[in-house]
Amino acid sequence: MAVTLGVYASAEVSGAHLNPAVTVALAIFRKFSWNHVPVYFVAQYLASFAGAAVVYFVYKDGLDNFDGGIRQVTGQNASAGIFATYPKSFVSTGRCFADQIVGTGLLTLCIAAITDGKNMKPQKGLLPFSIGSIVFMIGVTFGFNCGYAINPARDLSPRLFTLMAGWGTEVFSFRDYNWFWVPIIGPHIGAILGILLYDVTVGLHWESSEPEIDHEAKNLKDGAFASMTLEKVAATTSSQRLMESNLTDTN
């Protein structure tokens, strides 16, 4: 629902670019201006940081009651996972990396499908709900392993906030620094592969949108035009001859 409302709020302003991985993929495959990418990145990462700060401010008393004011990344009273994603202990980093690629790939593949004017594109007002539903279904089906970040800004900015808000450097050193990069790089790769897969399997196979030419009708039209032209030429020639004849008789 949060994604749906975010798309509704920003669609007419920025095209609802809420995800840096999607922004880069659209710049590669959908002619989104590269000049806008750095500006969008700044907005996306700052907004995610601000969102984490708001959540912390609203629920600080609850966090203090839960962990006694001692912020933890792992253990029974761990609460860092409220802000950034952390994998299950039994899931390898490599598997989580693949998880992020697949999850984000599904996201951009579906976005490419529902925004393709030649496909079954939903009505404009339903696009935010459609995108929100896609994110929800990815979360339900791919959220178990490592929390389905599928958005670098949604993970990195809150992680930076927790670094500053008392959870310490463990938010980055978790698994000996062999985790924090996964929800940053994985989604970027997945987003590119998702749109590429859609274009290769669907987008490049649409018939030309140019109207077909009815060659028979065109030939008839051209023939009629030629006939009319010849008639005009003949009429002009006859008029000239008649005028010359009249001049001769007068002389």
TrEMBL record:
Membrane topology designation: Multi-pass membrane protein
Keyword ATP-binding listed: no
Record keywords: Membrane, Transmembrane, Transmembrane helix, Transport
Gene that this sequence comes from: LOC115223099
Name of the protein this chain belongs to: Aquaporin-7-like isoform X3
Entry's Gene Ontology molecular function annotations: glycerol channel activity; water channel activity
Species for this entry: Octopus sinensis (East Asian common octopus)
Domain of life (superkingdom): Eukaryota
UniProt xrefs under InterPro entries: Aquaporin-like, MIP, MIP/Aquaporin, MIP_CS
Coarse class of the protein's main subcellular location: membrane
UniProt cross-references to PANTHER family, sorted A to Z: AQUAPORIN OR AQUAGLYCEROPORIN RELATED, AQUAPORIN-9
UniProt subcellular location: Membrane
TM spans (from-to): 39-59, 97-114, 126-150, 179-198
